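#struct-pred
JK: can someone run the complex with SAJ? inputs below
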Amino acid sequence: MHNVRTVAVIGLGYVGLPTAALLARAGFDVQGVDRDPEIIAELEAGECRLSEREVAAIVRDAIASGRLSVAANAEPADAFIICVPTPVTPGGGADMSMVEAAINAAAPAIAAGALVILESTSPIGATRDVIASALVARGLDPEADVDIAYCPERVFPGATVREILRNDRVVGGLTERAASRAKLFYRSFCEGGVVTASAETAEFAKLMENTFRDVNIALANAFALIAEDAGVDVMEVIGAANRHPRVDVLSPGPGVGGHCIPVDPWFLIDRFPEAASLMRMSREINDGQAARLLGRLEEAGLPSGSTVAILGAAYRGNLDDARESPTIRLLSALADRGYAWRVHDPHVRRMSAPGGIDAILSDDLTATLAGADAAMIMTDHSAYRMLSPDKFDGMSGRLIADGRRVLHVQAFVEAGYTVVPLGAPLARAGV
Ligand code: SAJ
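RT: done, structure tokens with the ligand placed:
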């Protein structure tokens, strides 16, 4: 038996809030806890700031049902789930301050017999070091009195509800009892399989998953660079290679964004710098992609001081999320090299770029392109797939960099454009 009827979910972001709503839907009495008063006020008014329609709907239903209430501080409950961000520090380590703040704030409400689960991506050992230590300070024995487990989230933004419900989970317990209890608990509201392990194994598994993706994207980006030099189209090569039954090369692009994949490998690199040299190099390759694409545009004749129209602020296609987006890195490179810019995105309404860089966004493609000397496609939004050359008529220049390989290059060349396709040689009339 998991012996859980009441649950406190701490951190009402893109994982915590849908998790809280799904728990409420499954019949638990749930408190959603967040230290941000704006989030609490919005939810109390029945509003949900998360834009995925399915998430907003289950959150509204959960609040209306009375099974999900929200508050700034946790009340006593049978189970506590911590879902707060763990960004990377300027020094390259894990910033665990939000996890520490969350467990310390919740500690007075945690009594013997509670199940305490950390879902935030964390360095190896963090469940023991941070969660268990906070409960020791509260006078609880972290193995005998409470059940502590690490169970990383694995959701793919854009498909959050389906992925929380259906993905397999790995549950790492500080003790076998904690792992078994957490497994039963997840099984009570999720459909995917649950594997039990130690907390350290589960922590490492989460870091391994996202690092695997980052390194494989870096490999695709390195193949793109080779293809450009070799004068072949990397997309054609990948298509051919992926016909092999055991090869699955990912897609090259202008960088790796989001709040997970560009961050999580650092939790390994920081602690195991020598063993993780491959991961460090992969991070460097991926982070260098946006500036490299700009460099190719310059080689193709981008006039100094010109205005570049950027198509796409989101880190991935059809999302409204610009966190750690490759476009942010591109803006820094454009600012450093003295260019002006405008950014278009059909979905993103807010974006913050560091260093006072102006990142005003428009959803008007024609206005963004009007008078621009060049365009750069940074996101694989469906709206950009197969854009026809006439959409770019208002540009004053005829240079386009396609960082996501969404354009029909030949059609643009025939219309008089010079195209810099990522992973393929420059294409211009007569070349
Ligand atoms: N990207 C490429 N080429 C590819 C795939 C992705 O350049 O072939 C880029 C994307 O454009 C984007 C970035 O990588 O900028 C990251 O996107 P993503 O599709 O890899 O995934 P995220 O960050 O949205 O979600 C990932 C997922 N992790 C894995 O697939 C291993 C998700 O399951 C995790 O839950 C999530 O990180 C997380 O929260 O950790």
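RT: quick notes.
The first strand starts at residue 6 and ends at 10.
The longest helix spans residues 199-230.
JK: thanks, will look after standup
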